[in-house]
Structure to design on (418 residues):
């Protein structure tokens, strides 16, 4: 009943209140003891009150006392109430025990007991998963079921999906492009959700500050570093096509971002395709280089469709633990919504001092109240299929892939909210 009331509470009451109430339901044993103690304490305090000066007739002869008839009746009534309170506590205890047993037999509880440990992978700089991890939102939600949550960081989305395939992790998030290369390599995974919005400045092509390169057309014949099979790979292909260049017109240098940074500093590469956290954010302020293009200038208002961030799971999690997967996605959504609100507050502070474009504030205000992740739909898969076709045309993947294959993509109308 308590859990049902919690579910009926409005969202505006706050996520922390919901979590506290859910935790309280699972600590009923402590509360049962508190109820018993309080009733007993009250009874002990009430009993002496019936022994007032009018209720006690002292016996002068034997230095003893005897109770008046009315005081005896009051005492019996008090003892009766006390016993009634004890009986009530026993009944209440049995009711709580039954409710606890019922809650421990829910599909979610049963799935959590079977899985025992949930292993999550995340790439550096992926906001939703960083918030989820650092604030312990998922651990708080699943602790009553005894499920252990572990976290492992990876350098790229491609390594994350490979880890899914070999069973190192159960759930992760990362760019959509990596899933194309992984599907072509017959890795085992399922796309289960996607982020609703992609940051328009979240990825860019950098060149050294003193580089003669000023436009995308100037990239012809240059050494360009990027992580093979990542979204940076796709961004480079589309950027070159925008100015009539082919992929064969540049010299690709396949490096992860940590590997590329020192070479970029030393001037050993001409350009570097990067993503968060190395774009022009606070985390990037100490890094060299200047941007010659970003997602917004390449894709315009189609950025979120063209360069999506997906969430992936092992097939067993989708097939055998659907209630648990729903909880994971609910918490990812909550973490993303919280992060967007924090970002909006930070931008609003900058806007007060005219340090940021007001249009950015307007966009963030629009997004801050919306869900962070959404189900995978035909539009998002059509865009991903377009990517796959481009890579196949360039012979960058060995065969055609169908991203709408139900083995690899879960399409559902479910919303991951409470």
């Amino acid at each position: 009943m308590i859990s049902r009331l919690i579910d009926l509470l409005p969202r505006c009451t706050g996520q922390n209140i919901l979590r506290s109430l859910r935790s309280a339901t699972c600590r009923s044993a402590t509360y049962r003891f508190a109820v018993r103690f309080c009733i007993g304490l009250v009874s002990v305090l009430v009993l002496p009150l019936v022994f007032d000066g009018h209720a006690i007739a002292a016996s002068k002869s034997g230095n003893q006392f005897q109770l008046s008839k009315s005081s005896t009746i009051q005492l019996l009534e008090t003892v009766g109430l006390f016993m009634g309170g004890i009986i009530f506590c026993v009944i209440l205890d049995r009711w709580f025990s039954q409710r606890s047993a019922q809650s421990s037999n829910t599909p979610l509880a049963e799935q959590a007991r079977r899985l025992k440990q949930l292993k999550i992978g995340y790439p550096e700089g992926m906001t939703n998963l960083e918030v989820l991890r650092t604030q312990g939102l998922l651990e708080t939600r699943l602790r009553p079921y005894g499920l252990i949550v572990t976290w492992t960081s990876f350098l790229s989305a491609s390594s994350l999906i490979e880890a899914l395939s070999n069973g190192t992790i159960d759930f992760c998030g990362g760019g959509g492009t990596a899933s194309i290369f992984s599907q072509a390599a017959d890795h085992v995974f399922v796309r289960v959700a996607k982020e609703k919005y992609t940051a328009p400045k979240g990825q860019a092509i950098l060149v050294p500050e003193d580089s003669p390169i000023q436009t995308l057309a100037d990239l012809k014949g240059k050494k360009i570093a990027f992580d093979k099979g990542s979204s940076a790979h796709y961004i480079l292909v589309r950027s070159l096509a925008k100015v009539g260049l082919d992929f064969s017109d540049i010299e690709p240098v396949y490096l992860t971002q940590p590997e590329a940074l020192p070479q970029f500093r030393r001037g050993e590469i001409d350009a570097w395709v990067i993503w968060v956290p190395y774009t022009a954010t606070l985390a990037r302020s100490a890094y060299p280089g200047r941007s010659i293009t970003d997602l917004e200038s390449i894709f315009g208002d189609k950025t979120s469709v063209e360069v999506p961030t997906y969430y992936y799971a092992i097939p067993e999690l989708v097939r055998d633990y659907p209630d648990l997967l729903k909880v994971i996605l609910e918490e990812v959504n909550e973490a993303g919504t919280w992060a967007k609100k924090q970002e909006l507050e930070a931008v609003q502070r900058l806007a007060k001092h005219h340090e940021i474009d007001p249009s950015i504030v307007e966009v963030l205000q629009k997004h801050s109240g919306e869900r962070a992740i959404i189900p995978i739909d035909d539009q998002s898969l059509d865009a991903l299929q377009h990517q796959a076709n481009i890579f196949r045309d360039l012979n960058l993947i060995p065969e055609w892939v169908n991203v709408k294959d139900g083995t690899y993509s879960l399409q559902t109308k479910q919303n991951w909210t409470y």
Notes: The longest strand covers residues 117-123. The CA atoms of residues 76 and 123 lie 70 Å apart. The two ends are 16 Å apart (CA to CA). Residues 1-29, 49-65 have pLDDT under 50 and may be disordered.
